[in-house]
Structures
1.
Amino acid sequence: MEGSMDVQSTSTEARAGAGETMKRIAVLTTGGDAPGMNAAIRAVVRTATHQNVEVLGVLHGWSGLIQGELKPLDSRAVSGIINQGGTILKTARCQEFHTEAGQKRAFETVQQYAIDGMVVIGGNGSFVAAHEFYTRYRVSCIGVPATIDNDINGIDMTFGVDTAVNTALHAIDNIRDTSTSMERVFVIEVMGRNTGYIALTVALAGGCEEVIIPERPYDLNAICQDIAEGHARGKASWIIVVAEGAASAVEIARKITAISGRETRHVVLGHIQRGGRPTAFSRELALRLGGEAVHRLLAGEYDKAVGFCDHQVVTVNLEVAIQKKALDVEGIYRLIRILT
Amino acid sequence: MEGSMDVQSTSTEARAGAGETMKRIAVLTTGGDAPGMNAAIRAVVRTATHQNVEVLGVLHGWSGLIQGELKPLDSRAVSGIINQGGTILKTARCQEFHTEAGQKRAFETVQQYAIDGMVVIGGNGSFVAAHEFYTRYRVSCIGVPATIDNDINGIDMTFGVDTAVNTALHAIDNIRDTSTSMERVFVIEVMGRNTGYIALTVALAGGCEEVIIPERPYDLNAICQDIAEGHARGKASWIIVVAEGAASAVEIARKITAISGRETRHVVLGHIQRGGRPTAFSRELALRLGGEAVHRLLAGEYDKAVGFCDHQVVTVNLEVAIQKKALDVEGIYRLIRILT
Amino acid sequence: MEGSMDVQSTSTEARAGAGETMKRIAVLTTGGDAPGMNAAIRAVVRTATHQNVEVLGVLHGWSGLIQGELKPLDSRAVSGIINQGGTILKTARCQEFHTEAGQKRAFETVQQYAIDGMVVIGGNGSFVAAHEFYTRYRVSCIGVPATIDNDINGIDMTFGVDTAVNTALHAIDNIRDTSTSMERVFVIEVMGRNTGYIALTVALAGGCEEVIIPERPYDLNAICQDIAEGHARGKASWIIVVAEGAASAVEIARKITAISGRETRHVVLGHIQRGGRPTAFSRELALRLGGEAVHRLLAGEYDKAVGFCDHQVVTVNLEVAIQKKALDVEGIYRLIRILT
Amino acid sequence: MEGSMDVQSTSTEARAGAGETMKRIAVLTTGGDAPGMNAAIRAVVRTATHQNVEVLGVLHGWSGLIQGELKPLDSRAVSGIINQGGTILKTARCQEFHTEAGQKRAFETVQQYAIDGMVVIGGNGSFVAAHEFYTRYRVSCIGVPATIDNDINGIDMTFGVDTAVNTALHAIDNIRDTSTSMERVFVIEVMGRNTGYIALTVALAGGCEEVIIPERPYDLNAICQDIAEGHARGKASWIIVVAEGAASAVEIARKITAISGRETRHVVLGHIQRGGRPTAFSRELALRLGGEAVHRLLAGEYDKAVGFCDHQVVTVNLEVAIQKKALDVEGIYRLIRILT
């Protein structure tokens, strides 16, 4: 991806407004990488190309827009990436873009390259930035929800999350072999930033005994009593899933040992949850949303995110998408407890 | 699972009607096995146990009900099976149950064991049988949709399909390595009985060039012309996915060679798509529907299937569930073609 | 596996000596669990059964021998476990067995159940214990090398290690997606107790830039200089693998940041490396060694471990097997550095 | 990889002889693709570069050498491919190279590009061709054994085979779920050309009941009798593995049904066994042999293949390497039968 910059820059006025016909759009990936980003890039490029719209890929997210790191992407450039994790455009977290000066430089790039609209592939933070960018400079941005955190409001699912959930679940299946064989209490920390979505899903699907998430209070004394009672009935192993947004596995394990006197082990799954070959669902969602984003952008929609809601493609205003997403935890939590 | 039959049989009248309190239910898996069946069994058993309802497991599907192959299942009996493919209760296709004599014998088993209701985990054929059984003998049956074919009408998704799709996709990813390296045309046949759901999904997610499904006509001459044109542009490899319900990969490959003169390879993925460790989504769906089926049955619902529709748990009359499910193929098909 | 103890105990003299015909052997798994243990158990049971020798399974390793937790294992008892991680016999680390009192009680169990010989499936610590047990009580023990640490001297490979290596490698592949996309330095800690075998192998196979192992000194200043030089050439991401026996990933990451000023991320893979479905090679090795152990034991060999050495089955005296195994690191290390 | 040909061709005499210092070598992949080929290419390129030797990549195997499809490969060109299946250099089966005219044209390419030596990554057929090429034109070729068939004589293992074995094993694990649940006889055909290596290994590791390979006769009547006897004992499912070099699964399944009257299912695993992410062992072997091939070539060895034999790197004359490799089947076969 590190080829020379051979994009024709122009000195014409920016055509960043909606309504008129778009000739050139830019695509970037920002924030943490999520499995499916490459599939989304592919869909954006090929859908736009099919509509005779040029695509520029911005490297390194907003930072690359500030620095002018762009390159043209044609159909061939996105061959063979559909099943690759990460992002060929690279990504970065960029503080500078949150300053007025940074956005001004980014806007100068938009003008210089005559970019008519932008597809922003990323998560919550990316959408906050895109909304600011639109608000200040009226650059038509459309968001494609890509994050393993599943924290975009107004839509059902972001596209990296199914892969992350399966990766975490596979890890938990592995750990269960040891937990069962050695009759141990394991505390496993999973990602998800401020939400318990991954934790709740893998705790259910993994047959785990308990889950600790930001969306509901927990009581370590009650958990330890459960363990004691289970032990008395002959139950010998436990897996407790902890969402990173709720607590630290190290801490929880230490406290359980302190309260119960029982040996514990902890595992922090960490960055293995971010990468890897995207699952079918992550790819399907990424491809459909990437294609849809282009159609909506060309149709004059902006300052919105595309997504699925009850199996329908919808757009959600970025202002809404970045609000706290409600997670209905009680039904699942009850099921986890009954199934144990 | 083949322990001796130590269930207390009773001579009391069958309590197969709904409305009164259920004390004992039976669970069986029928038709082709689907990943997640064990998770569903686990959910049925533990949810019922939690409600102080006894559970009998019927071995070998309807056939076991005819033969009286039943065994009690308690919480411990369903430990450690949540991530196992297949079904611990075994399954079978049973012609005898489609006869009056067969159903009569099955009903005698229901009476003998004082079974108040039945959870039937299976696909289309299983639901046809359950509906017949209810119609003739008023045995309260509730269906849990388990099949890789995703052909149950009125609900979004059956629970084995996500696993089957990912298995097929993984196989296609592997084949693409060879297809790209050797610059060949591959024709890959996937399962799905009369529906193109798996084929369409993996063709999209696998970045495949073409897909042949029962839901839409296909034109091999046009496909061969596409290949010729692509070849002229420098495109060197193709993957064509064929749904088993539409055509045979062997046939399609032979015809493409006949028309185009090009060497082809075919692969019939076959039964690898049926087994394997269920994905997170297959397990989640199986667990939630298994639990819900028990709740609905105890609440007096029967002759229905449980399922998700737009993220809500719903019940669908079995008569409706067994109708032909419509699959919206055009949007996805167009996307596949644009993305190529 | 937790059935009632229905083994016929006898008051006859122990027949623990070699040379005479064995009628009943015991098998146990001890120390950390390793993928393939179940395959080894299967091979032990079926090979012995084929020779008309009875097999008792000891639960919970040495601890179960002390407590008298034994159960008969026939061919059917080991069905369907060949591809399962963990161990159906459970395992434990047992301090009591390292005391004279503990071994005395264990020996009483051996006498009580008329056990003629024992197959001990485990790693270094297990072999130390088996050798002590033989030395003190002349119980014929034969060791089957099962550990992910690959630290048994005199043989090529223990049988869990190939699975652990592939699990760690898969995790590293995932992390590389993020490392490349976000252009970060990652420090990844892998298991291996006092040896760098896993670390060295995954660093090579994972295309990692650096590896820190107990077998050779490392210089963080030199590593940071490499990173700086690479960065100047345009290289943007690094993965440094750390063997748990050499250092802590947290510490190494912290120090690299301190020296270089560069942001780092660390991941401790931990217990995901222990479990999971064994690879083909882990199963093959487990099955062959399990079978061979029985043959050797029945042929009067004891106080030894079985293993492969240059593709030949060999036995190694336990005293030798527990010595420090030399690992030829320089060739591989040089290759890792050249390939970067 | 399809960039323009910007290699400096020269009119100087070919320096294809050994002994003098090499300045430029070529690398190609030929025959069927094997997982690890990309890792081997990476090792060849980076090892040569480290020795200040230029590397040209030949596209499409021998065919590309005839057509003059070459491109320079530097260290960066082989980034990020270590874990990719297939080959970035493409491969082909080339009849023309087996003619005198074809080889003459290929030799002209060698002279034109001033190629001092060649690394030939491939299997048996590739080595036959390389040996012919050396014999006729004295082009220094060194072979790197890459094939899933494991049929190179004089060395322990070729580098794609471990991946193919694990892929086939995973498929068999999946099929076992259905075989067990539906109590069926499955016949599964695996690859391996004229050898039974894959079949024998997966039959053992997969806990399969029977295996049919080219290296030993088989008796379908005896197999059907085994099935009948097993059935009488309560055994309900069978998996019979067939090597493609011995028989066709379709045929075997048909005959078993004809003899036994029992329903059977067949699966031909086919090309899924060729691709996919290489396992740790496939990568390690590919990297070590790729590096070693360069060292040997630069040291003046040619007309040989590199390989491991009893954990030592060795070279084997191509004439020997292409002989029929003996496979010791009886020990493994007996074990398979005992373990059933």
2.
Amino acid sequence: MDFKKWMTENTKNIDSQLNQYLPEKNAKQIDLYKSMRYSLLSSGKRIRPLLTIASYELYRQDTRLVMPFACALEMVHAYSLIHDDLPAMDNDALRRGKPTNHIVFGEAMAILAGDALLNKAFETVLNFSDSSIAPEQKLQCMQLLASASGSEGMIGGQVVDMFVNEKTQSELEYRHRLKTGALIISACQIGATLGGATHHELNLLTDFAQYLGLAFQIKDDILDCTANEEELGKPINSDQKNDKLTYVSLLGLEESENLLNEYTKKAVRSLHYFGSRGNRLNEIALYLLERKK
Amino acid sequence: MDFKKWMTENTKNIDSQLNQYLPEKNAKQIDLYKSMRYSLLSSGKRIRPLLTIASYELYRQDTRLVMPFACALEMVHAYSLIHDDLPAMDNDALRRGKPTNHIVFGEAMAILAGDALLNKAFETVLNFSDSSIAPEQKLQCMQLLASASGSEGMIGGQVVDMFVNEKTQSELEYRHRLKTGALIISACQIGATLGGATHHELNLLTDFAQYLGLAFQIKDDILDCTANEEELGKPINSDQKNDKLTYVSLLGLEESENLLNEYTKKAVRSLHYFGSRGNRLNEIALYLLERKK
């Protein structure tokens, strides 16, 4: 299957699963579900679940088994965006071309919808029961998810983003490794673990995801300077406005493009061991390199 | 062991475990740990972990095994208090006799510390490994925790608290069943599940916890009207100020005291099956009935 078709089909599948995991219930807390669904079901790139699926497909093809984990990663990502956009944090009004969650539902509901989406990520995996997945394997994947999203992972990265005044590239990369890198790495690790990867293969995929995560962030920084707001679906030059260190402000545009290419190459090189089986992950890396938003 | 001694020893044990699960790390995100520890290690009643331990002790005595779950429940409780106190929610400045988390650490850090504590609850249980606990049992207990703290449990209750204008006792009890009841029920269920309870026994303990949770809430409403702020460690008459329906505003003080006694009796009656083994849970119910804060 060609990459575009693979991505379209899997994105559709992910969206349909997310929709099922989070039905609009006719309960007293219906507005909570509306708020959760507003952010979760918006038109995101679904990079994390796609990476989980592609990593799993290195080994097996029945993606039904990997879906709850792939969707849990997207729920954690969605909750982090809701909370990051809050007035007390980045105070952003636009996200994926739409008003941010707190603009539509108010600050209290946005905080609760974020909390509920993090919680729902764990519920989704815990409520999924299939005899093909051993309980030990499920626990191992949950541990990867929980540690990637916690205080030594994504949340820790947001703390650094908010409170540390960075000066150097190594400080900048520390933030990105935690804030976006940890979850991207766990996306690949979880898919491969469910597929049955060896220890050595997990290490290679971790290398791949680590470089991919950094490349992803450099591309974000470049787009923040070069894209227009309509294309990007969120405010441009936001890093500059918020006085945040970026690859572009640190290295300039040309050097950032070079580093983006270098990290993408390194990511792709980590896949050599897998031969043609690694093509899908390779294609994802190149798609992220070329993306316009 | 007499009840006072049991409670003192176990509270000490819980606090020492919480302290170990959440060390003050020397990392870039050190202020996050300070903020998390500030709320988690403050002088709470530790009701939820004590219920988990007492429910487990119906069956077994080596509480080491139940500790990570008991502490996870306290982490979920602590995170919910931090987020409930936020300016966008109840906007409270005092909690357990100290300034609330956002007053000390600012709103952004308080949101992140809450997120991190919820995440940490799952991490704590997932990182605990002991051959005496079967993976299936661990998953079952995590499922109880996740569903009690989620959109159909505690978070759902906070949504009702914030957004539903209640008029009747049944609406009031719907809120309490979700907001405080669900977590209290899961505290007992998790302890008993780890101990090896039968289905029938789990049902009895669920009844016990359900009545206990409602009694707990009535007592809270009564104390909000009758205690002084110094004793209570948080603002008094806060429900009246926030125009929230309470048992006292709905039924009056005397009728609320009657209902408190009735629910406590029903809770205690649910324990009859356990005979003298149920004494500890019985004592907890009476302690909550008599408490001054």
3.
Amino acid sequence: MRATLMYGPGDVRVEDVRDSRVEQPSDALVRITASCICGSDLHPYHSMPAGSAPTHMGHEFIGVVEDTGSEVSTLRKGDLVVAPFAYSCGTCQFCRAGLQTSCEKGSFWDALPQEGGQAEAIRVPLADGTLFKLPVTPDSALMPSLLTISDVLGTGYHAAVSGGVTQGSTVTVIGDGAVGLLAVLSAKRLGAEQIILMGRHTSRTDLGCEFGATDVVAERGEEGVTKVRELTGGFGSHVVLEAVGHMPAYEQAFGVVRPGGTISRVGVPQYEEAPVGMTSLFGGNVTLTGGPAPSRAYMEELLPPILEGSIEPGKVFDATVGLDGVPQGYADMDERRSLKVLLKP
Amino acid sequence: MRATLMYGPGDVRVEDVRDSRVEQPSDALVRITASCICGSDLHPYHSMPAGSAPTHMGHEFIGVVEDTGSEVSTLRKGDLVVAPFAYSCGTCQFCRAGLQTSCEKGSFWDALPQEGGQAEAIRVPLADGTLFKLPVTPDSALMPSLLTISDVLGTGYHAAVSGGVTQGSTVTVIGDGAVGLLAVLSAKRLGAEQIILMGRHTSRTDLGCEFGATDVVAERGEEGVTKVRELTGGFGSHVVLEAVGHMPAYEQAFGVVRPGGTISRVGVPQYEEAPVGMTSLFGGNVTLTGGPAPSRAYMEELLPPILEGSIEPGKVFDATVGLDGVPQGYADMDERRSLKVLLKP
């Protein structure tokens, strides 16, 4: 079968690899019908350490179940399923608490060095707990939106839920990538009154406004902080959704948050240490929350509005490629010619 | 009048100073009847920068209103009052939200260079918003417990409330100082099922057990983390209440917190940067919260159980001094001969 491998910074290749197959009794083999490239795939695309082994890429996909292990009880051949970006047992205390990214048995896809979602097929461990059945056919026009519950919508929604966005909240979203835009959509869905989107790519912030942003701040750093403070009566934002992961975004976050407010991070932090002391978080009783989204936890909730058409998160996809087009898709996302690239293997 | 001033590390003096008096229309002059030395007073006692001007000390006190400015409407001469460790207007959006430490007009006592609570009298700004009337006389046997709602009980309670301690929670309290012990009492009051106290001073941890600790871990660092993990089935604690403020305590906190759990800090951080990335907070969706306690917000709630005798937070005081004894009181707390020193000016 064909699959996407990253060999190093800027070096993505589509190659023939060993066919994925059921290996464990709890596995399912899924033939992938829709997948995509993630903003977080760009982190290794920039800084994959030299000498690393080639890595199978992709962690967001929809596909058709082709085979199941002997222990799989809820899925059968032919089911159309979507996978979250972490696999999980569905039964441990963390899964039951809706924190499948901390599942006692599960992990992220990169724990499986021979599997990836930007490929023709994939072996899915703990299939009963991981996969979520979709009540449509693979040619449904809703496919782009349904694919977002695998990661980007789940992640934006996790940011907003963890941040405690509620009726009347003032929310600032940092980052106009797909996750940032879907954090806007999520904040709107949870009742936020003012949603300030910090981003400087007009085509993206326009989509952000369509998703519910009430204000756009293109300035960054101190200038951006000042602008957000002006827009919030000088007080700052109740909730800040940080969807970037770089230190300047974190600094903007504590610059614009209101005393007693919350910074919810879903951008994978590209730093380990950060300011948390008297002048950044502590003095103003600011809460820092968030983490890898347990997107599996939100699928039941996010499916109906997509099926009804009341939200259209699939609008974040602005390009579609086949497997051959994946390396170009990475380059296009990296150079911001594409917001998010859909893959039909 | 006589007041306590700090001149530098280890250098605390009681001196004759200018009498405090009403200066602004919203001020009250309070004759102090009970006050104390705070664990946080030991931070400058260790590291007050050379060349600093002498600083009036003390921010926790009970006293009798002796004079009021023309705008003060809720207090009159002779009222017995307790003050929180920040003064606040009581009417701005932050005060109304119960975050008086971020009051638009208020501040901490150290913003008033001529005033301190370890003195015979003090000028209290924004007296209507700041002071809380006590329905007892100054010679009440409840005085030590009532004094704790000024800071240490309010702070321990803030840790537990901000951390989301609830029925059945597993809680780890880091620090066996007065705040840590009252964080134990607060966690118990909020229904925590397991309360692990990390501390190595037996006389203090014994009091912690009296306040509700179910386990004591004397080990620190990695050894302590391992012990707490063992006590929590390998998973760690739902909530960690960090009542120290030094980096090793922060490191213990993220070592013992469970995925999806919360670290609530009330120890004044003696660091600005700290680990918050993938391997400390983010990866496990750990929430970091807390800050200076708005103890004013909790007074209405904490007064009744003290009056009823159902909690006895005043047990944290193990020494009483007059003003002359204050310098020795600092030394005794610094060298851990005293847990917390009560002052009767």
